[in-house]
């Protein structure tokens, strides 16, 4: 096929532009990126060879080569991995297919538009941009690649600006060879950083890629004094130049080493390398087990939750190895859904290399390992919560939602997640304006408090202001603030904690059966009697906007509030589910009126003038709209509302 020129996709162009105008301060990470791509490609060919040996074409010595060429100022990285077909080169190298990269660009745009102080560098730290990082150091890159098992090889070339070319070429060995034409700053004496210096390259490989499973080799030019037959250096002889092929990485898998010999930096470097991560991990668990099933696991809690953690395109799962040989990348069935954020790997001699992924995922050994790992992680989290509250809260901020969703999920799946997670969840609370556990909440409940109260809203300030809080505040009862849409679902699934039911402050009967509430009940009944037909007529004026109109016992200083029926969703939950047009998700609205408020008296007066009077009807409507606004819900007809209000103000 002839040479073709392709334009980069618009997003790719943007990314390349960022790369060239270097957003990273450490350019050197390009090498790690290219090496890990090479290593992945070898993994792939190895995996394919398990079912089709022929694909290796007799070349079974997996390796990665680095060639610095001081004459042409090029640095070449080659592998004998799976390689790419012409179409794959166009698709994988020319476009940004990865959702992570797309998400990155979107976030970057958002950050720019909102004028926030987030810099490109902060942003990019959260994403890997792989191959494109080559353009931080290269003026031009050439890829020559031949897919394993295919004849045609492809040459790709680009200067990283607008376009790239692809054409057919000759390539004997399978795999990919990437040649970078280094920019002036990156070679030779006086360079900012010399990427053609063997010792510099060696140190970078040691630093970033020491655990890569395949040998990374490079020729070193050395000088040696010639020796005589006895091996003694010959006096006054001229040193001879020698070329020596060295393997730069130790390849010893980190997880096989003794825990006590591994430094924090080593764990961290391995994490970034192995899982293409950029941030420091938050925590690491290194576990060796010898029981019915033998295994070693190395698991990490990432430093930050990925943007797509809760989207369908996020692929959770641990890597699987058997006797240090890679088997598969994202084994999903090992850990429960609610631990989907955990990154890591498991190496077990009890896993078979040669069975299909489907069978492997169902194997008994894997189930045992998975269960043990999940328990270990939960135990460690419980320990963290106990011993390092600040650390736990940091974890909670990133991944708490996963645990809450885990509890909610039991509604559909059953299982024991509820029991396991209920003591690990935190909610912000009214008492100290801090996060609390349910245990802490329960322990400090006053004798007279029967239920665990929560209030739902957009943020804690909004919740603080909602009228339904008043009755609880006046009693000094602690209220949990639910600001995450999933919170209500979570306690719905829990139903109770240690014998205490959860109660929304905006729903049904608050269950306050103390002396004060006895009095309140009496007052309410009295007010109800005295109001005659008033409540019925308000309900009539509002039609089916509300299911019921009641005298409130929960309001102290506010005039009205809307509450939902005890059974069924709350108003906030209804708003969260508003895109789902399902009657199941519609809250039954109850308008509660404070009989001690001035407004109530005014309403009574208006009512006496006649329930069909326009003044009374407008008043009812305004009252209802007010209650809606307090809940953060806009009226269906804002113009009518504004007009009525204006009319009233002009009176
Ligand atoms: P990432 O590696 O994060 O997916 P890259 O931009 O580094 O993103 O690479 C894009 C894709 O190009 C890879 O997913 C892979 O399919 C392909 N690729 C890159 N380098 C190689 C290589 N050395 N051998 C085979 N395929 C490669």
Q: Can you tell me about this structure?
A:
By secondary structure, the chain is an alpha+beta fold. The chain folds into four domains: 4-227 and 236-247, Histidine kinase-like ATPase, C-terminal domain (Heat Shock Protein 90, 2-Layer Sandwich); 254-387, Ribosomal Protein S5, domain 2, CATH 3.30.230.80; 394-504, Rossmann fold (3-Layer(aba) Sandwich); 524-650, Four Helix Bundle (Hemerythrin (Met), subunit A). 38% of the residues lie in helices and 21% in strands. The chain contains 21 helices and 23 strands. The strands form four sheets. The protein has a nine-stranded mixed β-sheet, covered by helices on one side. Strands 16-15-18-17-20-19 form a six-stranded mixed β-sheet, sandwiched between helices. Strand 15 and strand 16 (434-437) form a beta hairpin. Helix 10 (389-413) crosses helix 15. Residues 37-38, 41, 79, 81-84, 92-93, 98, 128, 130-132, 176, 276 line the site of adenosine-5'-diphosphate (ADP). Adenosine-5'-diphosphate (ADP) is lined by residues 37-38, 41, 79, 81-84, 92-93, 98, 128, 130-132, 176, 276.
